[in-house]
Amino acid sequence: HGEFELTHSGLADQARDLAETLPRLSGLTYHAITGNHDATFAERTGLDIGQALVGAWRALGRDDLTCYGDRGAYLRVGGVVAHLWHPKKAGAYALSYLLQKQVERYAALKPQILLAGHWHTFCHVCVRGVDAISVPCFQGGESAFAKSIGGSPAIGGLILEWRLTEQGTIRDF
Asked: How many helices (H) and strands (E) in the chain?
């Protein structure tokens, strides 16, 4: 829907822009899942977008990106379990509502951190011991498509740090 509004067209150009935008720093790694736009492209082409992006980064000399698959993944990073989640559902009337509902659904495997994409908003709540975050985006809100759906996206990225107790509980998040 927004292909004619892109500043970087095609996977190679977008991968290069991303690699130039995100800093390469010692000890800093990037962890990703694919989302709804990637799924639309993958359905039309059969291309695994996440692995193609990782390959494009490697071709640029970068080895600091890992993609875990489509729409969701659990990973262990920095001593904690994090759930990366890209829901299909549109945002709710309150920024924290869908984050809270997702945390309520956790039973056997409850992560310590939930990072949710798709809504282009920023919100952080701590519910049931889970630091749940709706992550901001890099997509601006000035395109014709963005204006048609309304709202104002939260533009930016996050660097997360935490300290763990001896029992593995997050402190100083």
From this structure: 5, 9
Q: Give 124-168 pLDDT, tens digit per residue.
A: 999 999 999 999 987 776 777 667 766 788 888 888 999 999 999
Angle at 118 between CA 110 and CA 98, to 5 degrees: 50
Question: DSSP labels for 38-96?
Answer: HHHHHHHH---HHHHHHHHHHHTT---EEEEEESEEEEEETTEEEEEE--SSPP-SSTT
Name the residue among 68, 78, 63, 9 with its Cα closest to residue 35: 68
130 is written with which tokens? Answer: 């889970």
Question: Which residues have CB under 8 Å from 16's CB, separation 6+?
Answer: 8, 56, 60
Would you say residue 3 has pLDDT above 80?
no
End-to-end CA distance of the chain: 37
pLDDT at 141: 67
Could you tell me the CA-to-CA distances from 142 to 30, 41, 67, 120, 148 in Å, in that order? 27, 22, 28, 13, 10
The pTM of the whole model exceeds 0.90:
no
**What pairing do the DSSP bridges indicate for beta strands 80-85 and 72-77?**
antiparallel
CB proximity list for 54: less than 8 A, separation 6 or greater: 65, 66, 67
Tokens of 152: 């104002």
